TrEMBL record:
Keywords for this protein: Lipid-binding
Organism in which the protein naturally occurs: Metasolibacillus meyeri
Record bears the keyword Cell membrane: no
NCBIfam families tied to this protein: DegV (TIGR00762)
Name this protein carries in UniProt: DegV family protein
Pfam families found in the cross-reference section: DegV
Keyword presence, Disulfide bond: no
Molecular functions (GO terms): lipid binding
Lineage per the UniProt record: Bacteria, Bacillati, Bacillota, Bacilli, Bacillales
Highest taxon in the source lineage: Bacteria
């Protein structure tokens, strides 16, 4: 039984990771002043931030057309028996639903869509777990059961510089954005019931990052050894330094560095930092 693992570009897996674990990727797109770009294919994260920094038009994001999913699933049917398609939270994008619709349209292969209920590196953690199991010959049922079993150990908390991006993009309520702006708050945000909500409102960026560190320590105490990712919006130097500090504090945690690409970066803006984790 050969199982193909599909995800979308917002998992922000490296090309090497996708190649190593034979992961298939469907890109989302970002609409800029000078055109529409498929992220991870036609535009890099750094190119995106350079373009929008002086732009007068707020970027927009677009989920993949259902036809793209159908085309990929039909192509995979030639070599695979089943597909597990893992996507960013259905609460912030219609991408997962697009995969569900496409699954019902293909006849030669069984496709199961999995809602990560999150995005970015934590979504990618699910994808890598699934891909490693598929490589070892696990069944689709076993892979999906495993993903559900580790869901309670997954966490992600992030700090943004400007809530206006989330509010304009419709990913955060206007009231929450207004309160943050008026008080110059740097709130810690997280996903609840598939959507982004404030976890705590904190007055300074430094204190917000320290709070995320406390939340990571709490997760380690609860779940034991974790794998963790520090994620940044075009502030790699700061993120790298933070990751080194966290690694020194938690030597048993496996840390890596990732980024918020164009689609998620549209909603978070430059300067966002996050930590996501999952039980090893």
């Amino acid at each position: 039984m050969k199982i193909a693992i599909v995800t979308d570009s917002t998992a922000y897996l490296t090309a090497e990771e996708r190649s190593r674990y034979n992961i298939h990727m469907i890109p989302l797109s970002v609409n800029l002043e000078d055109g529409i770009y498929e992220e991870e294919v036609e535009i890099t994260a750094s190119e995106f931030y350079d373009k929008v920094r002086n732009s007068k038009v707020f970027p927009k994001t677009t989920q993949p057309p259902v036809g793209k999913f159908v085309e990929l699933f039909e192509q995979l049917a030639k070599d695979y028996d089943e597909v597990i398609s893992i996507h960013l939270s259905s609460g912030i994008s219609g991408t997962f639903q697009g995969a569900v619709q496409a699954a019902a349209m293909v006849e030669d292969i069984k496709v199961t869509a999995f809602d990560s209920e999150i995005a970015c590196a934590p979504q990618g953690m699910y994808v890598l777990e699934a891909a490693k199991m598929a490589e070892q010959g696990a069944t689709a049922e076993d892979i999906l059961a495993h993903l559900e079993s580790i869901r309670p150990t997954l966490g992600a908390f992030f700090v943004v510089d400007d809530l206006a991006h989330l509010q304009r993009g419709g990913r955060l309520s206007a009231a929450a954005a207004l309160i943050g702006g008026l008080l110059q708050v740097k709130p810690v945000l997280h996903f609840v019931d598939k959507v982004i909500v404030p976890f705590e409102k904190i007055r300074t960026r430094k204190k917000a990052l320290r709070r995320v560190e406390e939340l990571l320590a709490d997760a380690i105490a609860k779940h034991g050894d974790l794998q963790a990712t520090v994620i940044h919006s075009n502030c790699e130097e700061e993120a790298t330094e933070w990751m080194k500090q966290l690694q020194a504090i938690h030597p048993n945690v496996s840390f890596k560095l990732s980024y918020f690409g164009p689609v998620i970066g549209t909603h978070l803006g430059e300067g966002a930092l996050a930590v996501g984790w999952l039980k090893k």
